Amino acid sequence: MSHPDAATAVPTVLVVGEALVDVVRADDGTTTDHPGGSAANVAVALARLGRPVRFATCFADDRLGRLLADHLARDAVGLAAEPGAVVDHTSSAVVTLAPDGSATYEFDLDWRLGPVEAGPGTVAVHACSLGAVLEPGAADVLALVRALAPQVLVSYDVNVRAVVTGTGADVVARVEALAALSDVVKASDEDLAHLYPDRDVTAGARHVLGLGPAVVVLTRGADGATWVAADGETSVAVPRVVVADTIGAGDTFCAAVVDALWSRGAVGPGAREAVLALDHSARADVLTRAAAAAAVTVSRPGADPPYAAELAGGPTSRPAAPGRGPDPIG
To answer: Confidence class of residue 23 from pLDDT cuts 50, 70 and 90?
Structure first.
């Protein structure tokens, strides 16, 4: 899908999906509002890594919506759709933190997608989580990705939220439809266990790979991450850090994968071929950078991904917040 101004437009990532506010209940009883949502977290993380970002989402002009708008503007995340045109209240999630930093969620969601202006400079599109499977917006996400796929890198984070969507045949079908259009699919061991309870996670990843993507990136929390491709697997360990909470870890991981692939020229037309051409060393480097970025996020409260300068100093370049445990990338 070319555009006459594409040659002079600023290369940009289009992120599409939900934005919401996490109302976080800590184990000491305190409550804090954190703007987020899986797609919003990816958009902010990409912007902090230095990539121009446009975000297609929805939220209302209410208290929580203004928190989101300020949050996105702070890191210069542009909007590719009018967020308040299709919903009358901003979505939220009550997040309850356990003493080990792990999180459980209760959602109040309304996910819809208005008209999207991708822009002539779009070189990558990322979809994820609820936005990819929750109707009525999911059908619009699929149509948008299908239209853009021939000319951009398509990345997709499965990020199953079973408490909201369930894990039945309809959800599996929507996940697989988007995976089939993608170049890079990221799925955690928990995602694959939800979707394919009759398969082990490696078999689940191989099944998703057979749908069409160039790679499935399988994350196993503290046990590392694996690049699953037709010609073999590449695995890396993850940094051990003091955990504040796990909110946004997987989202940061995805953003850093897109960022690292962009650095290797694997965006725009020919992105799929460029991803397939990466050798074992390059694949390990992509995963290692993504794990380092996610380690920063889990070291501090809320979805607070690193800036590019922080990664230059390693995942503990900024003091970690109180917590305990290994880095559980989702």
So the answer is: confident
Q: Is 329 inside any structural domain?
A: no
Main-chain phi, psi angles of 61, to 5 degrees: -90, 70
The answer to whether position 321 is within a domain reads no
Domain for residue 40, yes or no? Answer: yes
Residue 324 lies in a domain: no
Question: Long-range contact list for 306-311, CB < 8 A, 24+ apart?
Answer: 306/45, 306/48, 306/49, 306/252, 307/48, 307/49, 308/48, 308/49, 308/50, 311/49
Asked if 295 and 315 count as a contact pair (C-beta separation under 8 A), the reply is yes
Helix (H) or strand (E) holding 132: helix 129-133
Contact assessment for residue 114 and residue 86, using Cβ atoms and an 8 Å cutoff: yes
The pLDDT tens digits of the residues spanning 218-270 come to 999 989 999 999 999 999 999 999 998 888 999 999 999 999 999 999 999 99
End-to-end Cα spacing for the chain: 33
Which parts of the chain are beta strand (E)? Answer: 12-16, 20-25, 31-36, 53-56, 78-79, 92-97, 103-108, 122-128, 153-157, 184-188, 215-219, 225-229, 232-236
The C-alpha atoms of residue 248 and residue 103 are separated, in whole angstroms, by: 11
The strand pairing partners of 234, in sequence order, are: 227
pLDDT at 5: 59
Q: Give me the residue label for tokens 């917040």.
A: 321
pLDDT band of 97, cuts 50, 70, 90: confident
Please, are residues 186 and 158 in contact by the beta-carbon 8 Å criterion?
A: yes
Residue 315 dihedral angles phi and psi, to the nearest 5°: -70, -15
